[in-house]
Amino acid sequence: MLGMNMNTIVSVVCCPPGAVAAVALVVVACALRLRGFRFNTRVTAASGRMEGVDEEKYSLSQINIDYAPARRRVRRAFLQIQQNLDHCLFKMVKSGVKADERYEINSRGLEIFSKSWLPEFGPLRAIIFYCHGYGDTCTFFFEGVAKKLAASGYGVFAMDYPGSGLSEGLHCYIPSFDRLVDDVIEHYSKIRAMSEYKDLPCFLFGQSLGGAVALKIHLKQPRVWDGAVLVAPMCKLADDVTPPWLLVQILLVIARIFPKEKLVPQKDLAELAFKDIKKRKLAAYNVIAYKDRPRLRTAVELLKTTQEIETRMHEVSLPLLILHGAADVVTDPSVSKALYEKSKGADKQLKIYENACHAILEGESDESIFQVIDDIVSWLDAH
Predict the structure, then answer these.
(1) Residue limits of the Serine aminopeptidase S33 domain (predicted)?
(2) Residues 14-50: pLDDT tens digits?
């Protein structure tokens, strides 16, 4: 869900005098880190403590989940609670869909978690491959969206990136965005090659940072995919938050020294992304989502990726459905408009939802969420 683009990560460091102050803060923090100091890097969430959770489970939700075994332990403890949350996505489809979870070792020796949702009856119309947002997992809010798509006749496949969700790797550490994209391509290529799926249309579905992943997949495989659904995609920095060249160079140097440190300033994403206050509180139950400050190398990789995609929008040629909230302050809707205008394909559609924030699939009214999902299904049906 909470994909985050560099607008949020670098908004504090990009506009003078905040730029100088924030970079100075990171430099001082790094100097202290060299002297052995440790920092409390967790971002305080405005969504508050989880209701209906006993002290034991709440304490478990606060443990360090930098590595996959801890994330898997926490998810097991909260699974039943998550499935019974009072959110329309968890109530949408109760039958007619078969789900499967599994772990596989990829070519880099990492254990990757994946999940699929398939209709129990009837032939498949197409296959959808999901790319999740920053620090997120495919096992929380997206479950409801996937079940609705499966109930509409589509096979849905999703994975947690290395270092995200239930997959192996340091939590939300992206040493190379290109390598992450290659990991996703590797996993989804195996599924596409299966005899039962190889003749079906295949669509990418990218949400926020996952939009950047989906676009990078397409740019690496320009003739492979039949289309893409992009929800509030991270694909360009807004001009008013583009960091000055000098500050970028400073951060690049610091990131080489402390690539894994959680030192980049960040606001609470749930508060920014969810308009519906009740649904915003439920974001806290996504207990394996990354809630700490962004790691330095991750921030640099996201910045580099947005810069690359910005310069390559004209190369995007596959059929596109782009959906964005007009009031989104996490990823700029003007960026989606730029992608729509610059992409060279003729088959493209842009939907801007008035007054909607970033989490248009999770954080708006039930009626608005259903409308977005219906728009996605209608577009897929037409392709």
Answers:
(1) 123-364
(2) 444 444 444 544 554 444 344 444 444 554 444 456 8
CA distances to 148, 316, 358, 372, 378 from 354, rounded to whole Å, are 24, 26, 12, 12, 20
Among 240, 197, 213, which Cα is nearest to 302's?
213
Type and span of the H or E element at 101: strand 97-105
Burial zone of 77 (CB within 10 Å; 0-12 exposed, 13-18 middle, 19+ buried): middle
Identify whether the C-beta of residue 200 lies closer than 8 Å to the C-beta of residue 126: yes
Query: Is-contact 203 225, C-beta < 8 A?
Result: yes
The residue written with tokens 């690539």 in the block is 259
User: Which of 146, 109, 131 lies closest to 188 in space, CA to CA?
Assistant: 131
DSSP state letters, 227-253: EEEEES------GGGPPPHHHHHHHHH
8 A C-beta contact, residue 259 and residue 350: no
Between CA 361 and CA 344 the distance in angstroms is: 27
Q: How far are the Cα atoms of 46, 49, 290 from residue 277, in angstroms, in the given order?
A: 10, 14, 20
pTM of the shown model: 0.89
Per-residue pLDDT of 91-138, as tens digits, reads: 988 789 999 999 999 999 999 999 999 999 989 999 999 999 999 999
Kindly tell me the burial class for residue 250, based on how many C-beta atoms sit within 10 Å of its own C-beta (0-12, 13-18, 19 or more). middle
Residue 49 CA neighbour count, 13 Å, CB half: 9
Structure tokens at 240: 């008013």
